[in-house]
Design a protein that fits this description.
heterotrimer, A mainly alpha (95), B alpha/beta (203), C mainly beta (95), B: 203 residues, alpha/beta, Nitrile Hydratase, Chain A, 47% helix, 12% strand, C: 95 residues, mainly beta, SH3 type barrels, 2 helices, 8% helix
Chain lengths: 95, 203, 95
């Protein structure tokens, strides 16, 4: 990324959302407990397909990387995360 | 906190908002994380802000000995002012002088002295900043309204490894009579990254 | 610790698969050791869940902007510092 051409720097700031705070907290709490490292998290982000890396927001990338590591380490499965997040989306949609 | 602000969440509709809630619920159920651990991390980040950096800078401006300590051991100097610098990475402060202007970037990800300044601003994480700050730092600073003269050496710090950097800007002229608190108010977050400098319009 | 402050160095141009903490734009570029930062677990191994031991020396390395970018649009004194692990450096005194 360093040195690639780019356009003007957009100085707009979005308001941090609760799920972003949570993504930050869970990711760093897992580091704190020695379940994963920052370096693994970076590697997991870098291993996202390039178009995904570019299209996701900062904390979306964090969530994707944290999920990938939890699955890789056998702590959670993609299926159960899928199932649980579908449930949550249904609850939000229905409220 | 899984049931907070459901309407807000529905409005943003990032599928990742639901995914992180799902991950949280599962980790709590399995006892991998506890609710207090998650809350502690949230409060940790909430207690960090650019005001901490401003406090360090203002003290350095009024106290030469403190400045030396800040430049030689950033974490110890932060602790002295009651700022908890706990973080696995090192914290290094680099000084602007009439001859040298420093600019911080992380091209590989978005490393930032979070333990002191909190979450980085969106622009710092943007691909345009990460790409261009190393190659055309002067053009980037111009976009932030700052243009160091040609006889000032611009040093870009790419935080590639275990060190997080913060800039100690120069004290603006005409601020001799300001208190430490008033000085701290001049120190903007952008000036702690080096894309601009603190300004003083006068009384 | 192979290098000392002031030593001329060059960043290795090797392509290494996987997670790397040396930015691509520095590969093959000449610079100097500005200071020795310390020794840290190797992030390129931490990234895959290994211990990162033995620790690797980390140096703050300086580069002239004009050596990094042919078309650098600024004064000749402008430079860039990056933190580079020893295994990414070779002596710059080569012919």
């Amino acid at each position: 990324m360093g040195g690639s051409p780019g356009g003007p720097v957009d100085k707009n700031q979005h308001e941090v959302e609760d799920w972003e705070r949570l993504a930050d907290a869970i990711t760093t709490a897992l580091d704190g407990k020695g379940i994963k490292t920052t370096d693994e998290h970076r590697r997991a982000q870098e291993s996202l397909p390039p178009e995904e890396y570019r299209s996701l927001s900062y904390y979306e990338r964090w969530v994707a990387a944290t999920e990938k590591l939890l699955v890789e380490k056998g702590i959670l499965t993609t299926e159960e995360i899928d199932e649980r997040s579908d449930e949550i989306l249904r609850r939000w949609g229905g409220s | 906190m899984s049931d907070h602000h459901p309407h807000e969440e529905a409005a943003t509709m990032s599928p990742y908002a639901a995914r992180i809630r799902a991950i949280e619920a599962l980790l709590l159920e399995r006892g991998i994380l506890t609710e207090p651990e998650v809350q502690d991390r949230i409060s940790y980040m909430e207690s960090r802000s650019p005001a901490n950096g401003a406090k360090l800078v203002a003290r350095a401006w009024v106290d030469e000995d403190f400045k030396e300590r800040l430049l030689s051991d950033g974490k110890a100097a932060a602790s002295e002012l009651g700022i908890d610098p706990t973080h696995p990475a090192e914290f290094v402060v680099v000084e602007n002088t009439p001859e040298v202007h420093n600019l911080i970037v992380c091209t590989l990800c978005s490393c930032y002295p979070r333990a002191i300044l909190g979450r980085p601003p969106d622009w710092y994480k943007s691909f345009n900043y990460r790409s261009r700050a190393v190659r055309e730092p002067r053009a980037v600073m111009r976009e932030f309204g700052f243009e160091p003269s040609e006889d000032v050496e611009v040093i870009v710090h790419d935080s590639t490894a275990d060190v997080r950097y913060m800039v100690l800007p120069m004290r603006p002229e005409g601020t001799e009579n300001l208190s430490e608190e008033e000085l701290a108010e001049l120190v903007t977050r952008d000036s702690l990254v080096g894309v601009s400098v603190p300004r003083y319009a006068g009384s | 610790m192979t290098f000392r402050p002031g030593d001329r160095v060059r960043v290795r141009s090797a392509e290494k698969p996987g997670h790397v903490r040396t930015p691509g734009y520095l590969k093959g570029k000449p610079g100097w050791v500005e200071s020795v930062i310390g020794e840290y677990p190797n992030p390129e191994e931490l990234a895959y869940g290994f211990s990162g031991f033995p620790e690797r020396p980390l140096y703050k390395v300086g580069f002239r902007q004009k050596d990094l970018w042919e078309d650098y649009d600024g004064p000749a004194d402008d430079c860039l510092y990056a933190d580079v692990y020893e295994h990414w450096l070779e002596s710059g005194e080569t012919t």
